[in-house]
Write a structure and sequence with these properties.
The chain is an alpha/beta fold. It has 2 domains: 37 residues; 136 residues. 15% of the residues lie in helices and 35% in strands. The longest helix has 9 residues. The chain is elongated and about 55 Å long. It starts with a strand and ends in a 13-residue tail after the last strand.
Length: 192
């Protein structure tokens, strides 16, 4: 008999079902998003439990509508970690997220010249090794800590003023920029 099951009065009981929801939600916060959602199939109790996870780890290819629908399913989402994701849209928005980590993401704008990321409640931002379309941060005035480290090529030039104007209230900023090509048709503007 499996160690996680115990026979009580002829019936098998599993210890996991006896844990409080708060502890189960903490455990789910450690899993990848796909695994978190799959737990809804375990039992009726688990059906909506996944929507209460406060932190989420994503990696995948996303179109805006699909991404927005998925992220807004998490009603208590405050921490979001995204790695190796591709976004094929013009913008993404995180309405409840307070801490956002994006690493090695690729942004591809469908019709706009600039990809925008909006997060009105965001306080901590870590944005590293992301590439693709030119990116701007919008409605992030609550950000107090920001670490931004990216590489840019000649086509998607970097204008730090455009990127940073959306996070105007920042108290700590670490900005690292690497230019991959010396040939650049557009001048690189940097504030004095």
């Amino acid at each position: 008999m499996n160690n996680s099951h115990k026979r009580i009065g002829g019936e098998i009981s599993d210890r996991l079902s006896n844990l409080p929801d708060a502890l189960l939600i903490d455990i789910l916060s450690l899993l990848d998003a796909k695994e978190v959602v799959q737990t809804c199939l375990l039992s009726k109790r688990w059906h909506n439990l996944w929507t209460s996870v406060p932190s989420l780890h994503l990696s995948s290819k996303w179109e805006r509508e699909r991404f927005d629908n998925f992220v807004t399913s998490f009603i208590h989402l405050q921490t979001l970690s995204i790695r190796f994701a591709t976004f094929q849209t013009n913008s993404i928005s995180f309405q409840t997220v307070k801490s956002l980590k994006m690493k090695s993401c690729f942004f591809y704008c469908l019709s706009e010249p600039t990809f925008s990321i909006c997060a009105p409640r965001l306080k901590d931002l870590k944005f590293t090794q992301c590439t693709g379309s030119k990116i701007t941060f919008k409605d992030m005035s609550r950000v107090t800590n920001a670490i931004i480290s990216n590489s840019y090529n000649g086509r998607n030039y970097y204008n730090s003023h455009d990127l940073l104007k959306g996070i105007s209230g920042v108290e700590y900023l670490k900005l690292t920029v690497h230019y991959l090509k010396a040939e650049c048709d557009t001048p690189i503007n940097q504030p004095n």
